[in-house]
UniProtKB/TrEMBL annotation:
Belongs to the histone deacetylase family. The keyword Manganese does not apply. One of its GO terms (biological process) is acetoin catabolic process. InterPro entries: AcuC, HDACs, His_deacetylse_dom, His_deacetylse_dom_sf, Ureohydrolase_dom_sf. Keywords: Acetoin catabolism. Pfam families: Hist_deacetyl. Residues 15-310 form the Histone deacetylase domain. GO terms for molecular function: histone deacetylase activity. This is Acetoin utilization protein AcuC.
C-alpha cells in the first residue's frame, strides 16, 4: 500500500516523526526492485463511516476542525499538544494512512492478496475519542474493525513496537473475536505507561484476550526474541486466527532516540520472518497484514527495517549481507545531508534460548515472561 501523499502526515520540522522515513523506505524498496515483485496500490482515504468504526463522531469533527484551522485545535481531544501538534491537512493525511490499512485488510480478506504491507500505518496509540503519541487515527484498529465487519470471527493483533499498543487494546478490550498481543518496554520506563501483564482484557468471554509482555529497559536481541517465542506461537496456536495483523515499529532498535531497548536490525528481521511463518502456519491461507509504526532513527534504521518487511511479505527477502545501492545512499544525502547505511544488516546473528529448555526465576527477562504467562495462560486454558 503506497501513496506519496502519506508523507503529508507531518507534525513539523522539530517533531521526531519525520515523514522522510516513509519516503526513504519506499525509495529503498524501489532500489531493491521489490516494487516489481508486488502490486503497489493506493486506497482511498477512510471516510467518516469507516472512521466511526473505531472513533467517536465528535472526535472526527474535532480533527476536521483542527485540520482546517490548526490554531483552533482542542487539547481536550489530544490535538494541538507537543506530541500531536495540529497542522493544515491533518485530517486528510491521517485518513489516507487509515485508508491504506483498511484497503490492505479488504484485499487480504477477499483473497486478492495473501499478504499486504502498509508501512505508513501502525499508528496504534490513537484512542476512540482522542489523539495520542503521534497518532491521530488508529489505522490498525480500523483495519481490524473492517475485518470484523466483513465477517472475520478471529483476528490476532501482534504489536512489537517498543511502546505498548494501547489504542488497539482499548478498542477491542471487550471483544473476544480479537486477540491483542503487545511486546514493549516496561511501562515504568516508557510512554504510555500501560501494558502491564495484569491487563488481560474485559470480563466474560473477552477475559484473556489482551496479552502484554513488559520488557526490562536494556533488553537486547536474545531477550527480545526469547520473549517473543516464549509467548506468541503458543497463543496463536490456541487462538487460530483467520487473519494476523502485525505492527512493526522499528523503535526497539538500539539507535532509536526515544526508547531504551537494544534490539538490532537483524533481530527485527528475524521477528518479521517469524510473523510471516506464523501467518502461514496458523491463519486461513496465510492472511497477513503488516503495518509500520514508530521508529525515529529515520535514516539508519527505519528504511532498512521496513524494506526487509516488504521483501519478506513479497517472498523476495533481501539478503542482509547485501550492499545498499549507491543510488539510494546518494538520495539519502541529498534529502538529509546524512550518509546512509551501507549494508542491510547490523552484523548480528540473532540467537535466543528456547523457553521449553527452562527458565531462570532470578533473570529479569524471564520474570517478565513468567508474569505474562501466569496472568494470561490460565484464562485461556493453557499451562503457564
Amino acid at each position: 500500500m503506497w501513496d506519496e501523499a502519506v508523507t503529508a502526515y507531518d507534525f513539523g520540522d522539530s517533531h521526531p516523526m519525520d515523514p522522510v522515513r516513509l519516503a526513504l523506505t519506499m525509495e529503498l524498496v524501489r532500489a531493491y526492485e521489490l516494487d516489481r515483485a508486488v502490486d503497489v496500490v493506493a486506497a482511498k482515504p477512510a471516510g467518516d463511516s469507516t472512521l466511526r468504526l473505531v472513533h467517536r463522531e465528535d472526535y472526527v469533527a474535532a480533527v476536521r476542525a483542527a485540520s482546517a484551522l490548526p490554531r483552533s485545535a482542542d487539547q481536550a481531544y489530544g490535538l494541538g499538544t507537543m506530541d500531536d501538534p495540529a497542522f493544515a491537512g491533518m485530517h486528510e493525511a491521517a485518513a489516507l494512512i487509515a485508508g491504506q490499512s483498511v484497503g490492505a485488510a479488504e484485499a487480504v480478506w477477499r483473497g486478492q492478496a495473501a499478504h499486504a504491507v502498509n508501512f505508513a500505518g501502525g499508528l496504534h496509540h490513537a484512542m476512540p475519542g482522542s489523539a495520542a503519541g503521534f497518532c491521530i487515527y488508529n489505522d490498525a484498529s480500523l483495519a481490524i474493525a473492517r475485518l470484523l465487519e466483513l465477517g472475520a470471527e478471529r483476528v490476532a493483533y501482534l504489536d512489537v513496537d517498543v511502546h505498548h499498543g494501547d489504542g488497539v487494546q482499548a478498542a477491542f478490550w471487550d471483544d473476544p473475536r480479537v486477540l491483542t498481543v503487545s511486546l514493549h518496554e516496561h511501562p515504568r520506563t516508557l510512554f504510555p505507561g500501560t501494558g502491564w501483564p495484569e491487563e488481560t482484557g474485559g470480563a466474560g468471554p473477552a477475559e484473556g484476550g489482551a496479552v502484554n509482555v513488559a520488557l526490562p529497559a536494556g533488553t537486547g536481541d536474545e531477550g527480545w526474541l526469547r520473549a517473543f517465542h516464549a509467548v506468541v506461537p503458543e497463543l496463536l496456536a490456541d487462538f487460530r486466527p483467520q487473519v494476523l495483523v502485525t505492527q512493526h515499529g522499528a523503535d526497539t532498535h538500539f539507535e532509536d532516540p526515544l526508547a531504551h531497548l537494544a534490539v538490532s536490525l537483524d533481530a527485527q528481521r528475524a521477528v518479521q520472518e517469524a510473523c510471516h511463518t506464523l501467518a502461514h502456519e496458523y491463519t486461513e491461507e496465510g492472511r497477513w497484514i503488516a503495518l509500520g509504526g514508530g521508529g525515529y532513527a529515520v535514516v539508519d534504521v527505519v528504511p532498512r527495517s521496513w524494506t526487509h518487511l516488504v521483501g519478506i511479505a513479497a517472498h523476495r527477502p533481501v539478503d542482509p549481507e547485501s550492499m545498499i545501492p549507491e543510488t539510494w545512499r546518494d538520495l539519502v544525502y541529498a534529502r538529509t545531508r546524512q550518509p546512509g547505511p551501507r549494508r542491510m544488516t547490523d552484523g548480528r546473528t540473532p540467537r535466543w534460548r528456547d523457553w521449553g529448555a527452562g527458565y531462570d526465576p532470578a533473570d529479569r527477562l524471564d520474570q517478565a515472561v513468567l508474569a505474562t504467562r501466569r496472568a494470561v495462560y490460565p484464562l485461556r486454558g493453557l499451562l503457564a
